[in-house]
Amino acid sequence: IDQASTIDIFSQKPNEKTEHFIKYDFNLPKGMYDLKKYALTFTQGEAQNAVISRVSRELNIDINILSGNIEYIQEQPLGRLLIGIDDNSKEPQMIDFLTKHNIRVEEVKNA
After folding, report:
1. How far, in Å, CA of 61 to CA of 9, rounded?
2. Closest CA to 22 of 35, 12, 31
3. At residue 19, what are phi and psi to the nearest 5 degrees?
4. What is the pTM of this model?
5. How far apart are the C-alpha atoms of 76 and 72, rounded to whole Å?
């Protein structure tokens, strides 16, 4: 089990045992969206910024917002968003852009 501050446990990639307890379920019907899906975790205040809008404009890529929320843990915003894209050619640039803005990006295969 991970040991850290509460906000760090929820915002960083947990180990397997911790992930079992804190994994976020976007609760989408299976097979509803025929897109490549990514779970984004916004940390270090990025939940308050228009990062999705910026990456969409800068890379000229359409991003579908499928689900999301913002929770406040220890008075810090922690945003979670499930997005879908169908232009895989821009995927590496999108991931790089988001990562540089303190957003954890994980591909979701079963949502």
Report:
1. 31
2. 12
3. -60, -35
4. 0.71
5. 5
